[in-house]
Design goal:
Layout (H helix, E strand, L loop, with lengths): L7 H31 L5 H6 L2 H18 L5 H4 L2 H26 L5 H28 L1 H4 L4 E8 H12 L5 E8 L1 H4 L3 H17 L4 E6 L1 H4 L2 H10 L3 E6 L22 E2 L8 H37 L5 E7 L5 E7 L22 H9 L6 H6 L4 E3 L6 H7 L15 E3 L1 H4 L9 H16 L3 H17 L6
Parallel strand pairs: 1-2, 1-3, 3-4, 8-9
Antiparallel strand pairs: 4-5, 6-7
Helix pairs in contact: 1-6, 3-5, 5-6, 10-12
């Protein structure tokens, strides 16, 4: 399941498991050496002269190779506890046997068997205790802290059972919500069927579910494009699963059933769909926003705030509802660049707009009005780089005019973006200009990399120095 629907808890769990295993195995090696030398079972000088540090490196190398060979920390292993136990046992057995053989062949010192026995006992003890604790993490904590990721499975009743059974073997960290439909839906017209699925997507979106698996029949395949567009409008990631009409088996018992890994066709695939890349991006966001908050906004806010107050009454910051990831509304911060007015949440700024204050013109021209949005980045509502968040009225308006407009909401909005550094910013009276923005946003999502983010940040800095003609 994690292959198609990412759960950040599993990613954090994998990172934690790698770190704790690495740290504890090294502590065990040092502890074993300390124990056998303290009790006089091994002469410390003799083992040190026998390349103690090469032994330590060999221990780590064998552990690394064993874990990689058995894929102990792969996503497919981490998502199921029984897989973790199985691969841990194989990795542990290989580590102890291979390391013991290497030591006995290449290193000769008195009491070598005591040293190896200490390694075996301590490693086995650690693995037993850590995996016992992991059982609690997998069986109790997901329910207690609601770590399970909700997904939806939609399908015709006649085809749903086999697919539902395949999903049922997964997992402590996922909860599958099933929506069944019957023959009467099959007998409707194409428009009626699409309308019915549109209601399904709206229903799951309201429940906070943004990953849907649709059991695709030949009939559904004829209007899959319309279904993808309907799902996009609700910020729902649609995954097509082929219908399975038979249960395959090769033996006489239920346990002999052939395990079937169903192929899944995703409606959208981009670099930021993986949780690992999202975490990398989040780490960079936290680092940059933390630096800006401490070293820039700490002195910039009092200075600009005083000028804003002197030029017009009202707050220093302007907080406007904007559309965020999965079309969730959040309050986007900016330095107030206009006089307080009733149309600020509806009407975009235009050229020679009388609402803009003198300091506001400077702030807009240099992009300094956007700097408070680093607060949104630090809070996790935005990213430093991403599609610009639009006003709610614009989201509602343009989502009806521009195809794939809502796809840009699959990722966090940004302070700056690929569209902005290519000149698509400011007022958008012409829908074609907004369509160009969306085109650049989707291009960014498809080709995301850390280097692309830094390129956009660098281009934004240059634009701030030169000033932008479309900023008013």
């Amino acid at each position: 399941m994690h292959r198609y629907v990412q759960n950040r808890v599993l990613v954090y769990l994998k990172m934690l498991l790698v770190l704790t295993d690495t740290l504890c195995l090294n502590l065990i090696f040092v502890g074993a050496f300390f124990a056998v030398t303290t009790f006089g079972l091994v002469n410390a000088q003799e083992i040190i002269s026998s390349n103690y540090y090469s032994l330590w490196m060999m221990f780590n190398l064998v552990a690394l190779v064993s874990s990689l060979y058995f894929r102990l920390y792969e996503n497919s292993t981490i998502e199921r506890l029984e897989y973790v136990f199985r691969q841990t046992f194989r990795t542990l057995l290989t580590l102890l046997v291979a390391f013991s053989v290497c030591v006995l062949i290449g290193h000769h010192f008195t009491g070598v068997w005591y040293f190896l026995a200490a390694i075996v006992v301590l490693v086995s003890l650690y693995v037993g205790l850590s995996r016992f604790a992991l059982t609690y993490v997998y069986t109790v904590l997901p329910k207690r802290f609601r770590w399970s990721k909700n997904v939806a499975l939609i399908g015709h009743n006649d085809y749903l059972a086999a697919v539902e059974g395949s999903f049922a073997i997964n997992h402590a960290f996922y909860h599958v919500n099933t929506i069944k439909y019957y023959d009467e839906v099959e007998q409707r017209s194409k428009e009626e069927k699409v309308a019915q699925f549109r209601r399904y997507f709206e229903e799951v979106s309201k429940l906070g579910i943004h990953d849907v698996f649709l059991v695709s029949t030949p009939d559904i395949n004829t209007y899959s494009k319309e279904l993808i567009m309907a799902a996009n409008h609700q910020c729902v990631q649609l995954n097509f699963v082929p219908a399975v009409t038979a249960t395959l088996s090769y033996g006489s018992t239920k346990s002999d059933a052939v395990r079937l890994d169903l192929p899944v066709v995703r409606s959208h695939e981009d670099s930021l769909s993986t949780m690992e890349n999202r975490i990398k991006k989040r780490m960079v966001d936290l680092f940059i926003s933390g630096l800006v908050l401490v070293f820039v906004l700490s002195w910039l806010v009092p200075i600009i705030g005083l000028i804003i107050k002197l030029q017009s009454p009202g707050p220093i910051f302007f907080k406007q509802p904007r559309s965020g990831r999965n079309n969730q509304t959040f309050g986007c911060y900016k330095f107030r660049s206009m006089v307080v007015n009733k149309d600020s949440d509806k009407a975009q700024a235009t050229k020679d707009d009388k609402r803009i204050t003198p300091i506001g013109k400077f702030l807009r021209r240099t992009n300094l009005d956007e700097f408070p949005q680093f607060i949104n980045v630090f809070l996790g509502q935005m990213s430093v780089v991403g599609p610009r968040p639009h006003m709610l009225s614009h989201t509602e308006h343009y989502s009806k005019l521009i195809q794939h407009y809502m796809v840009r909401h699959f990722v966090k909005p940004g302070i700056t973006g690929w569209a902005q550094v290519n000149g698509y910013r400011g007022e958008t009276k012409d829908p074609k200009l907004m369509a160009k923005r969306v085109e650049h946003d989707l291009e960014y999502m498809s080709n995301w990399s850390s280097m692309l983010d830094f390129k956009i940040i660098f281009m934004t800095a240059l634009n701030m120095i030169r000033g932008e003609k479309n900023a008013y």
